[in-house]
Specification:
It is a single chain. By secondary structure, the chain is α/β, with parallel strands linked by helices. It contains eleven helices and ten strands. 40% of the residues lie in helices and 15% in strands. Helix 1 links the parallel strand 1 and strand 2.
Length: 304
């Protein structure tokens, strides 16, 4: 479909009311027409036929960004192995329904997945070619959802890692949670023997919109931040950026914690975003920022 210069492109979004959905709506403002598909709008991903009817109601759309997911990892662990549970029905069954609706309507599916599809047991950054081996139920359902997404026919899969966003947000993310704890007298106990790759939500949002515009077929991207670090180091960076007491950032051990809480946890999730950066550069989009810059942007947004 050719769009005249004064026309906004139309994109459908599941999970628009969630953490990344809010960032996506802000990034799309003025440039895109976004239709959110939700239970309220008649696009319940867990209800057979609901999504297909909702997608068919928007014939101008050429892409659907699938953000809706069950992301509470601890709650997912309590449902381990339960294919009738809400986690599996949302992440796998919901993606199957979305993919079928996209295939029926002839539109491109952009499926958002997670770095939790990896075991997190190595020090090297994970690339798109590396073996997926999830160690807990949430990651297993998201890996299966990647397979389901390919049923759309035309698809792109995007793995994101520890997204954090500027307020307002639908729920507290990792950065907001740590910041709140540091602002309180209790402080925060943060692992210094774990590595994660936090990603600024606006970078994810703008990346997803680029994919909605270009619709690369059959491609997998790691849309992740430029910095991999421990939660403890992240806490110190948060304290520095927001003028909080760094003495309240206390060292904790993942290894010691897992002796008390046996839920499987990834030790090291360094994520390579090289493929994404190359794609973004070809289309004039800046690469994802590192933690220091992302926190600075949130701080500046809060002071406006």
């Amino acid at each position: 479909m050719n769009h005249r210069s004064n026309e906004k492109q139309v994109v459908l979004v599941t999970g628009a009311s969630g953490l990344l959905g809010g960032a996506l709506l802000r990034a799309a403002a003025g440039e895109w027409t976004v239709h959110g598909l939700s239970r309220r709008s008649g696009g319940d991903v867990t209800a057979a036929g609901s999504v297909e009817r909702a997608v068919a109601a928007h014939p101008a759309a050429r892409a659907l960004i699938h953000l809706a997911a069950f992301t509470d990892v601890s709650a997912a662990h309590r449902e381990s192995g339960d294919r009738a549970g809400l986690c599996y029905r949302t992440n796998v069954g919901g993606t199957q329904a979305v993919a079928a609706a996209c295939r029926a309507a002839g539109i491109h599916l952009i499926h958002v997945s997670t770095d939790f599809v990896f075991a997190g047991d190595r020090s090297e950054p994970y690339t798109e070619e590396d073996e997926t081996r999830p160690i807990e139920w949430y990651g297993k359902t998201k890996l299966e959802s990647e397979e389901a997404a390919q049923g759309a026919g035309s698809w792109t899969i995007v793995r994101v890692a520890y997204p954090y966003v500027a307020p307002p947000a639908a729920r507290p993310d990792l950065v907001a949670t740590i910041r709140a704890r540091l602002a309180a007298e209790t402080g925060a106990d943060l692992f210094d023997d774990q590595i994660i790759t936090p990603t600024y939500g606006e970078d994810i949002a703008r990346g997803l919109l680029l994919l909605a515009a270009k619709r690369p077929q059959g491609t997998l991207f790691h849309l992740a931040g430029a910095t991999s670090l421990s939660p403890h180091a992240l806490g110190l960076e948060i304290a520095r950026t927001f003028g909080l007491d760094a003495a309240r950032v206390r060292r904790a051990s993942l290894a010691a914690h897992m002796k008390k809480d046996p839920r499987p946890r990834q030790r090291s999730l360094r994520i390579s975003n090289a493929r994404w950066c190359a794609f973004a550069a070809r289309h004039g989009l800046a690469p994802p920022v590192g933690v220091a810059e992302g926190l600075k942007r949130i701080q500046e947004a809060g002071s406006e």
